[in-house]
Amino acid sequence: MDEAPGGKQPTPLPDLAASLHDVHKNYGEASTLVRALDGVDLEVRRGELLLLVGPSGCGKTTLLSVLCGILDATSGAIEVYGTRVDQLTQEQKTTFRRDTIGFIFQQFNLLPSLTSAENVAVPLLIHQVPWETAVSQARETLAEVGMEDRTEFFPEKLSGGQQQRVAIARAMVTRPRLIVCDEPTAALDGTTGHMVLQVFREKVLTSERAIVIVTHDSRIFSFGDRIADMRDGRILGVHSQQEHAVIEERALQIAGRQKAGQP
Fold first, then answer.
1. Which of 61, 111, 121, 189 has CA 20 to 30 A from 235's CA?
2. Rounded distance, CA 121 to CA 22, Å?
3. How are beta strands 75-80 and 226-231 bridged, if at all?
4. Which residues are CB-neighbours of 148 under 8 A, at least 6 positions away?
5. Residue range(s) defining the domain that contains residue 69
6. What is the mean pLDDT of residues 203-230?
């Protein structure tokens, strides 16, 4: 079991990392009403890498933001490792995110004036870990993702894949129970994207940690334990990678027949 920052042992974890039940997120009213999330039901299991896929504008990033308490849901129940996120105050949500969730983004968001180790140390500094201890732990975490020889490099001296590894280490350094990623491979070529997903599976995923990745990148679908298919603010289904591949192939066949005017 991972230790929390400061060496404290976390409490026993529930079987589910997260769950959303009948979650709605609306914008506007009456004729201007937009249902960004329209009755979402989704479970994320401990120890799994879940991919959330679907077309642009279907609500994937909104779902991620509601799950983490960045956005307030209009209605519904949201639970992350036994905590009802939707019932927390804004201050409590901020603390909960800091202590429980690691974030990884498409654009890396590294501070250009800090070295790799210093960038990774930032979340620990927010936890009020002393500077030298924070940088030492950051170096150890960078080593976990194969960046032990780049700890003193500035972001401009790193490749895109290396910058993403630094971002992964930054998300890992506080030993969060849930890691959420918004298009982490969109800015990377196929080979580098595969290398990054291998890091997720081999170095980040544990039996007590879950990873949720929002992606359009079909090149990484094979790395998911399950794939949640989202359309128009709803989860249409959650399938294994193999099941999803069969469904996609059938959909392509039907689309091809319709385009050709065949029944």
1. 189
2. 38
3. unpaired
4. 139, 142
5. 5-109+176-259
6. 92
Q: What is the identity of the amino acid at 170?
A: R
What is this structure's pTM? 0.84
Q: What is the pLDDT confidence band of residue 58, given thresholds at 50, 70 and 90?
A: very high
Task: Report yes or no on 140 lying in a domain.
Answer: no
Which among 186, 189, 137, 192 has a CA at the least distance from the CA of 165? 192
Q: What is the CATH number of the domain that holds 14?
A: 3.40.50.300
Please report whether residue 248 resides in a domain. Answer: yes
Looking at per-residue confidence, does 87 or 13 come out higher? 87
Q: Is 116 part of any domain?
A: no
**How high is the pLDDT of residue 107?**
82
Q: Tell me the percentage of the chain whose pLDDT exceeds 90.
A: 68
Pairing of strands 178-182, 34-45: unpaired
210 by Cβ neighbours in 10 Å (0-12 / 13-18 / 19+) ranks as: buried
What pLDDT, on the 0 to 100 scale, is given for residue 14?
57
